[in-house]
Amino acid sequence: MKAIRRLALRDLRFNKVRAILATVLISLPVMAGLVVGSLYSNQSSHWMLEHFSEVEDLQASGLAACDCEIRQEPAGNGASYLDAGRENGDAEEMIAAVISPNNSVEIRQDSMSLMLQKSSDYNILHSEAQWAAANEFLIIEGRVPESTDEIALSRGDQASLGADVGDDMSRIINYDNPEPVTVVGITENVTLISQDGTGQRPTLDDLAVSGWGMPQLAITGPDPVTWEQVKELNRLGIVVESKHVLDNPPPQEDVDAWTDGGFGSTSPEINYIALATIGLIGLIEVVLLISPPFTMAVRRNERSLGQLAALGATAKQLRRLMLFQGAFLGFAGAVLGIIGYLVFRFALNSNAGEQLFLVAWHYPVAIVLAVILGLLAAVIPAVTASRINVVAVLTGRESGKSVRYRRSIIGPAILLLGIVLLFGAIAVKDSDVLYAISTIGIVLGLIGTAPICIRLASALVGKMSLPGKLAGRESVRSVHRTAPGVAAVMIVAVVAVFTISQFFTMLNRNFSEENIAGPRGAAWVALQDWGTGGDDLAILENSIRELDEERAVKSWTPVYAATGWNSNVEVQIPEDRMCPLEDWQTMEGLSSEEYEQVQEDAQTDPRCINYLGGNRMNPALPNLFHSGFPIVDDGTILDLLPGDVDVELGQATLDKGGVLLAYADGIVGGSATFTVVTYENVDVIEGETITVPTEAVLDEDGPYQIFSWEAAEELGLIVNPIGALIVFEKPVTMLETSSMLYDFAGNNAIFYETINEVNTDYVIAALAAAIISILVAVGTAIIIVVLAGRETRADYDTIDALGGKPRLRRQVSHATGLIIGLAGIIPGFIVGSILTIAIGQLLDNQPLEVPFLPIIGLAILIIALATIIPGLFAPRKKALTRRLD
Questions:
Q1: How far apart are CA 413 and CA 728, in angstroms?
Q2: Helix H segments across 463-607?
Q3: Between β-strands 150-154 and 179-187, what pairing exists: parallel, antiparallel or unpaired?
Q4: Taking residues 28-34, what's their average pLDDT?
Q5: Distance in angstroms (rounded) separating the CA atoms of residues 304 and 385
Q6: C-beta separation of 364 from 411 below 8 A
Q7: pLDDT 10s digits, 215-230
Q8: Under a CB-based contact definition with an 8 Å cutoff, are residues 420 and 435 in contact?
Q9: What are phi and psi of 437, to 5 degrees?
Q10: In this model, does residue 691 exceed pLDDT 50?
Q11: Taking residues 631-648, what's their average pLDDT?
């Protein structure tokens, strides 16, 4: 065995180029797999448990979600809230009564949500607070709160509320019964409250109103938290993520019974079908990808293998020789792939924020899988090596019978059948089995067409020149070793088309020049808490001044809105235009049968189109345009809005003191009537009513009401700045969007809503997949053609015998690369486009868009590289051959 290892390594050293290229081929799928695995781990990570990862003996993590019972799925990723209330009491005692007596529960809450209101005339301030206990040192003015009716405000909350020490306000825990609190102190950066003077034993209700959606409870100890215990905690309004339940999920029937079938959009059977399909196609592709170097190695080293056999090497030892090379190159490829992944991860995270995380167990798994793949790729060459004809190779004659490929129609027939089944799956829609069979059929059929594609490409290139004819003859004669490489290039091209299409689809949905408000690279920011009593414009100015120190601000434009936490502005719709569903007073008096009939009739009632369709949202616009509060504008913001907006008519209407709408339901004779409606508990109070010039000029995807300043004043609306458009001296680029959204998170007064550029958070997975697939496609094509160019020894010998110049060798290599590029890339891109279009038809909500121009450009680039590069690696010296007759 030791001698076999030495011979294998010696052969690899003598054939460095082949070994290096084989290693790179193996590293490409390893790197792609690590990227996909990292992205999947990020999306499927158990964040609640990871939040308390430093806690010893952690069994479960929990969050008090509401003052009601809930129903959750085992992983805790989804929960439904029931109308039934739940018992309240000491949180630790109630949880301890459910879990094992050997376990304990600890409330590990760093902060809690807080709602404060200066008076009923102001909006509610949503803030964050900590317990006063153990935080006395934070006080810079006044004193620490000592009872539940006292509070110490942070400087930020003080500015937002316009409050000072000694002021009275309300803490909102129950909207119907606000609790009075007095400001007794000021801190630098955190608001403090007191829980019975200690803050050590909160109730379940206390936790439910202070969670910020973050885990609060750590359950530790030797015993697992079972599914039955999770359900009991659900009855207390607690979402739980348990290690035991994650490792030992309950039967699906039990989960469906508990959640009333409310979770899980796919069945386990469909998931297994999808996994099996992806796994099988991936295995076929990877083996095809890395098998050509081993196949070529056997052909090139036939004489050396024959000498070993003549010296007494058995067939088993010759097989081991090739298998050891496969395992060694698999290990080397894994190491190179891991290094490539780490470099890619560093480059991506440096430019787009922390997107790919290190997952330790992925690396040994990658090494093991790469070694196994290396062995699988070397199996057929190893069997070929063990069956070598010793006499034939040592005498210089052909080794056995030449391999002949008949012009078979099996491959095209399977491909055509797969495409027919695919369109059948589109017609059926819900048949995952049919879709899986059709996809596998298309892949196998495409692979089966490789010899035919090689013949067609050879015939085409052969008509161009003598080098093309020589290269075509050798490619067809050696189709048994070129076909796997061409098939690998085909499948890589299919994957590249799909990933590129996915990326461009998400890119176009996320950003387009016609879809944004304001110049490209500008940012929309919103005030954290406007209309709460402070000087909002001064807070906004100060925040932008701080931002200017980090990134130079060129200009900014404020956005104003008519705000009120318990009020709204309604347009009066004439009765003959009103959808019956909007008349809530009449709807309340209907019986169940009458109510259902009205709902059914509304589906076909043209008056209900807007009501049932709801207000659409342009994802490229900031949320402040979709907040429901009417925008107050003099035409500045109107001029920035994208979509189908009649700016000229809108500006004229605002100049007349009018209002702009997205819908024309309430407009009669160029005017509409508006009423301020205030909600106090269950009472609805109508306020001021005005009739002003009104036009429906706004796009349905943007804000649906814009009031002139005159109309807002006439209605008595409270107008506040709610955000701003900021134009930077240096526009924000795509790769900066994620970091921009997080780098300034320390500015508590404002936050970024959107940036007029692609947010890589939305497209990062597709971007990574597209980059990796392009690299793999280009790399695979180049490596395959380089190997093919170096292995056309028969034609090089003929060229030498005829006195051909080295330039002719390079021309033959160029032509060989062109043949393989044409035979692999063009069919692969065509089939990939068909598959992608078909998948887009299957996805009703998010159809895929095939970007034909970029794909055609990529195909031309790969074919050009496949044509040019092999000549650089072509042998430049005459081979020394020695014939033993």
A1: 59
A2: 466-477, 479-510, 536-550, 584-588, 592-602
A3: parallel
A4: 76
A5: 10
A6: no
A7: 888 999 999 999 999 9
A8: no
A9: -65, -45
A10: yes
A11: 92
DSSP result, 753-767: EEESS--HHHHHHHH
Phi and psi angles of residue 230, each rounded to the nearest 5 degrees, phi first: -60, -45
How far apart (Å, rounded) are the C-alpha atoms in residues 37 and 341? 11
Please state, rounded to an integer, the average pLDDT across all residues of the chain: 79
- Tally of CB atoms within 10 A around 565: 16
What backbone torsions phi and psi does residue 236 show, to the nearest 5 degrees? -95, 5
Cα–Cα distance measured from residue 241 to residue 216, given in angstroms and rounded to the nearest whole number: 12
How many C-beta atoms lie closer than 10 Å to residue 552's C-beta? 10
User: What tokens does 852 get?
Assistant: 């034909």
- Helix 760-790 × helix 268-300 angle, to 10°: 30
Looking at the predicted structure, is the pLDDT value of residue 768 above 80? no
Place of tokens 């109103």: 209
DSSP codes of every residue in 554-571: EEEEEEEEE--TTEEEEE
Is pLDDT at 289 greater than 90 in this prediction? no
- Residue 356 in tokens: 């790919």
Say how far apart CA 44 and CA 116 lie, in whole Å.
36
Let me know: does 118 contact 159? Beta carbons within 8 Å.
Answer: no
CA–CA separation, 530 vs 159, rounded Å?
11
- pLDDT tens sequence across 431-485: 667 777 888 888 888 888 888 898 899 999 988 888 888 888 878 877 766 777 7
Inter-residue contact 768 to 559 (CB < 8 Å): no
- pLDDT category, 881, cuts 50, 70, 90? very low
The CA-to-CA distance between both ends of the chain, in Å, stands at: 33
CA distance 802 to 250: 76
3-state secondary structure 238-267: EEEEEHHHHHCCCCHHHHHHHHCCCCCCCC
Of 741, 345, 820, nearest to 524 (Cα)? 741
Choose among 849, 170, 829: nearest CA to 565.
170
| Neighbouring residues of 732: CB distance < 8 A, sequence distance ≥ 6 | 521, 522, 523, 740, 755, 756, 757
For residue 663, give the amino acid letter. Answer: Y
The torsion region of residue 225 among left (phi > 0), alpha (psi -120 to 50) and beta comes to beta
Backbone angles phi, psi at 507, to 5 degrees: -65, -45
Question: Alpha-carbon distance 658 to 660, whole Å?
Answer: 7
> For residue 110, what pLDDT band results from cuts at 50, 70 and 90?
low
Residue 162: CA count within 13 A, CB half-sphere: 16
Q: To 5 degrees, how large is the angle CA 131–CA 134–CA 139?
A: 80
Q: How many residues does the chain have?
A: 885
User: How many other β-carbons are positioned within 10 Å of the β-carbon of residue 87?
Assistant: 11
Alpha helices in 313-401 (DSSP H): 315-352, 362-386, 390-394
d(CA 248, CA 269): 18
pTM of the model: 0.62
- Distance (Å, whole) CA 495 – CA 778: 12
pLDDT at 36 over 90: no
The residues that bridge with 557 in the sheet, in sequence order, are 725
Confidence of residue 267 (pLDDT cuts 50, 70, 90): very low
| Residues 6+ positions from 309 with CB-CB distance below 8 Å | 318, 388, 390
Position 211 confidence tier, pLDDT thresholds 50, 70, 90: low
Burial 679-698 (b: 16+ CB within 10 A, else e): eeeeeeeeeeebebbbbbbb
Lowest mean pLDDT among 331-340, 627-636, 831-840: 831-840
> Which of 172, 208, 175 lies closest to 69 in space, CA to CA?
208
pLDDT digit string (tens) for 49-60? 877 877 889 999
Which has more pLDDT, 225 or 609? 225
The CA distance from 722 to 624, in Å, is 7
